[in-house]
Specification:
Distance between the termini: 44 Å
Number of helices: 30
Number of strands: 28
Radius of gyration: 42 Å
Helix content: 40-55%
Low-confidence stretches: 5-27, 916-923
């Protein structure tokens, strides 16, 4: 891998440094009058040296010029170029640009539902179409769709991060023939070197060209209700010295991690922000708002604002009239008048044709403010003088989250028009929960790294097994960018595992002479002894509670001179023989006991301190004894010579009779448990491990060995998962495909007609679509009913307020009911295998699709649903895409093929089809 960094220099094509890069002859047309930056020149030289290139540069820095050079170079060699984009809208825009640049007859277009001049020397296509062509190239070497292709431009290559499309990008790179040069154009990412190294491994020699220089520098500002102010210092590394970070009043500050964030000051009104931009000559601007409703509301909020001159308004009126004459259905109701004032909105809910008009007018400088969602930042060529970011966080399917560094950079990068602006402006706006501090953090944040979204699918499994054996399929799966990134981490993980295994080995060596089985047995016995002792204490406590009540009642009638056994704190837990000398009144109904112990100690105790009453023994003579005066319970005092004689008598009686065992220990269950404890204690005393050295040290040693074993096992499990998860998923998909008869043969790896049909489909779950098509439940549907049924099983509409006036047609309901059991079975198998592949089921819009396929006018259609026009077009285009694939399924009935053609013609009309006269060519 070679790598070159960009700089601020520019070099004229005619100079000696580029004579090598741009050889004379047919490339002269490309070089006339152009000035290349160093990074562009480095990429040109790499292409001339036969290398593939990865170009990582800021948005708006001129990466497209490198792709255009690849086109000129291929054309000069009488070769072809494929230009791939992640979005159909971007493909359409590139088609228009290249037609203007190279001529209509030299440019073709391939999308899911459209084939235009597909044999042209320059073919623009979505990346998914290119991936499908690569599989077809393997199948039909005699009719190679890649014949004479010199280079493939992968525009917006950072789309590899996209969860839905990322796998397609990786498949395209893995399967692209090494003879074809890849020109990967990416916005700034943190790990472009890793992407380049991966391309070197899976495709061929690749040079990395990085540029951090922006031809039009950016100035960051912050807008609050007080006005528009600089955000960053002159170096662009920290907040501007005059920036005031807002701090909540003391009473409003958060307390604790779960407390809600203190609200920021009131945000600036949207009209106020736009007026400030107009006053400072910072228009045209793209105003990013992360909701469709917010974008449309922005247009309404500027109802009294006119941003265009009379001459510009006239030009806008002329182009709007021309558009309305050719496409009256596409004029967005209520948004034509703001358009004439230079104000528009651009989001996924708008018709594609209307969005293209907005884009064209904005590029001409006639629209001054476009309110757009962040999808506009994804490659559409709409450079502005200013971009405004209304919020630094957004709602997603997983909840509210802050913008990432790359998302912010992508939007900010739309500011600054090369050749038109000396400086671009990026304005962040005060919001209720984000202020100048958060804006500064994002403005100085680095780009995020590319991650892999590679995930095997049913179509991938069948396409690979159709062409390769299992070993080769595994090799191809393990060439993914995800596996490459995992391998980089595996080196560190494996080193850590080896380190832990060395530690474990050292511990095992130091304990070679320790019979660990005996030690474990000893520890088990110790554990059992602890448990048995705990049980003994419980039984003693229960028996003691019962005995206390009995003894307290008996002691009321016991005479002085009676022998007892005491247990009290002052006696330090010893069961002490004693004699009752006096019974002074107690605080309650029971007396206190003044006793003399066998150690000649006077003690005043309550009745509850007596644990044994020896009424069967003769009472001692205590009447002549002079007693001591004790006042407080638990108080003790040593006796004198006179009391010593009585103490000797108590001790003598204790020697002849058991006066040290409390009565509760004589209970049968307590006695049996005590014998069990004694037996365990004797067993432990005679155990071999009992005579070893420091058992505590041995125990710590053993515990550390167990901890290391557990950590090593867990790390090895994670290592296996990270290095094999794609292949494990691949194998799980094979088992599900076998269950449904898509794979058979002696080894269970040969695609059947069912499998070939599934392999020919494109969708989120190709197996689900294929099973539905060959089930026979769709064969008797008419074209409109077929289109409605296919919508239900191939699309998802995640709109909480979804409604449609038309219910599902009866025949569609019946077909879906018949498919429900198969869907349930597929879902069960996927869950058992741990495979997450969506099985779409959206019957709510079947009536809408049926109505459109039956000829309902567009205006009537939109009047009967809550969906935006863009959503309806997207649903219908997904249905068109699936209908166009049906004739290629070998196991699909002829009736279904015929009906799919009819259904396709019925629904693929304007505004669903932008070019009504160009329908996909079907077999």
């Amino acid at each position: 891998m070679a790598m070159l960094g960009g700089s601020n220099e520019s070099v004229r094509i005619g100079e000696h440094r580029l004579r090598f890069a741009l050889n004379a002859g047919p490339l002269g047309a490309f070089s006339d009058g152009l000035v290349l930056d160093d990074f562009q020149m480095a990429a040109v030289e790499a292409l001339n040296n036969g290398l593939s290139v990865v170009v990582s540069a800021p948005t708006g820095s001129g990466k497209t010029l490198i792709g255009e050079y690849a086109i000129h170079r291929a054309l000069s060699h009488s070769h072809r170029v494929f230009y791939t984009t992640p979005l159909k809208a971007l493909s359409n825009q590139k088609l228009r640009d290249f037609k203007e640049q190279f001529g209509d007859d030299r440019v073709g277009l391939l999308t899911g539902d459209l084939s235009l001049n597909r044999d042209a020397p320059i073919v623009v296509m979505t990346t998914e179409i290119f991936r499908n062509m690569l599989y077809a190239e393997i199948d039909h070497p005699d009719d190679d769709p890649l014949r004479d292709v010199e280079a493939v431009v992968l525009d917006e290559c950072h789309y590899m991060n996209d969860t839905q499309r990322g796998t397609v990008w990786e498949e395209s790179i893995i399967h692209c023939p090494p003879s074809i040069q890849l020109v990967a154009l990416s916005a700034t990412v943190a790990n472009a070197d890793q992407l380049t190294d991966w391309l070197c491994r899976v495709h061929g020699p690749t040079q990395l060209v990085i540029s951090t220089h922006r031809p039009v520098p950016l100035h960051f500002s912050f807008c609050s209700a007080k006005g528009l102010h600089p955000l960053l210092n002159d170096a662009g590394t920290d907040l501007h010295p005059n920036s005031k970070v807002w701090r909540a009043p003391k009473g409003a500050r958060r307390k604790g991690p779960g407390a809600a964030r203190s609200p920021q000051p009131e945000p600036a009104p949207l009209a106020f922000v736009v007026q400030k931009l107009a006053e400072r000559d910072m228009l045209p601007a793209i105003y990013f708002i992360f909701s469709r409703r917010g974008c449309d509301k922005g247009v309404r909020d500027l109802a009294r604002l006119n941003l265009v001159s009379d001459e510009e308004r006239l030009r806008l009126q002329q182009q709007l009239d021309s558009f309305a004459a050719s496409s009256p259905e596409a004029v967005r109701d209520g948004y034509a008048e703001p358009l004439l004032r230079g104000i528009a909105s651009h989001h996924a809910g708008v018709l594609p044709a209307w969005k293209e008009l907005i884009e064209a007018l904005f590029q001409q400088g006639l629209i001054k403010v476009v309110f757009a969602t962040e999808t506009l930042a994804a490659g559409i060529n709409m450079p502005a003088r200013t971009t405004v970011v209304s919020s630094l966080s957004k709602r997603t399917e997983r909840g509210h989250r802050s913008l990432t560094g790359s998302e912010f950079l992508q939007m900010a990068g739309r500011a600054g028009r090369r050749g038109l602006d000396v400086q671009g402006y990026v304005v962040t706006v005060q919001s209720r929960y984000e202020g100048v501090r958060e804006a500064g953090q994002l403005a100085t944040a680095p780009a995020d790294p590319l991650v892999s979204q590679f995930t095997p699918s049913y179509g991938m499994v069948l396409n690979l097994l159709q062409r390769y054996d299992l070993a080769k399929a595994k090799e191809l799966v393990e060439r993914s960018f995800g596996r490459y990134l995992a391998t980089l981490d595996l080196v560190e993980d494996e080193a850590r595992i080896n380190e832990l295994m060395l530690q474990l080995s050292a511990l095992e060596t130091n304990a070679d002479d320790v019979p660990w089985e005996a030690f474990e047995d000893y520890e088990k016995q110790r554990g059992r002894l602890r448990e048995e002792r705990r049980l003994l204490r419980t039984l003693q406590h229960q028996a003691e509670e019962t005995l206390v009540h009995e003894l307290t009642a008996a002691l009321q009638f016991a005479s002085v001179g009676t022998l007892v056994s005491l247990k009290a704190p002052p006696l330090r837990g010893r069961i002490t023989p004693a004699v009752i000398v006096r019974k002074p009144p107690g605080p309650g109904q029971f007396p206190l006991l003044l006793c003399l112990t066998d150690d000649n100690v006077w003690i005043l105790v309550p009745c509850s301190a007596v644990v044994s009453l020896h009424a069967e023994l003769s009472c001692l003579q205590v009447s002549d004894l002079e007693t001591t005066q004790l006042v407080h319970t638990g108080e003790i005092r040593h006796g004198d010579q006179q009391s010593g004689g009585l103490a000797l008598a108590v001790a003598s009686m204790a020697r002849r009779h058991d006066m040290t065992t409390p009565h509760y220990d004589l209970a049968a269950e307590v006695r049996n448990q005590a014998e069990c404890v004694e037996a365990l204690e004797r067993s432990l005393t005679t155990h071999a491990a009992h005579r070893w050295g420091d058992r505590k040290q041995l125990k710590r040693h053993r515990r550390r060995m167990e901890e290391l074993n557990e950590e090593i096992a867990e790390r090895q499990r994670l290592l296996h998962f990270r290095s094999n998860r794609h292949w494990d998923t691949f194998l799980a998909l094979i088992e599900i495909l076998r269950f449904f008869g898509a794979l058979a043969g002696s080894d269970g790896l040969q695609p059947t007609d069912v499998g070939l049909t599934v392999a020919a489909l494109r969708g989120d779950n190709e197996l689900w679509l294929g099973l539905a098509l060959i089930s026979g439940h769709c064969d008797e549907l008419d074209p409109a009913e077929l289109a409605a049924t296919l919508e239900a099983i191939s699309t998802e509409v995640n709109r909480p307020d979804l409604w449609c006036s038309w219910g599902p047609p009866p025949a569609v309901e019946e077909a879906l009911h018949s498919l429900r059991g198969m869907r349930r079975e597929l879902g069960r198998l996927q869950e058992q295998a741990g495979v997450v592949v969506p099985i779409w089921w959206e019957p709510e819009l079947t009536g809408l699709v049926h109505a459109w396929a039956s000829g309902t006018p567009w205006a009537d259609l939109m009047a009967n649903t809550s969906l935006d026009e863009g959503d309806v077009v997207r649903v219908l285009r997904r249905t068109v895409d699936l209908l166009a694939q049906i004739p290629y399924g070998v196991a699909v009935s002829q009736r279904l093929r015929d009906n799919s053609r009819s259904a396709l013609k019925a629904i693929n009309r304007f505004p669903v089809c932008e070019l009504e006269d160009l329908l996909p060519t079907l077999p």
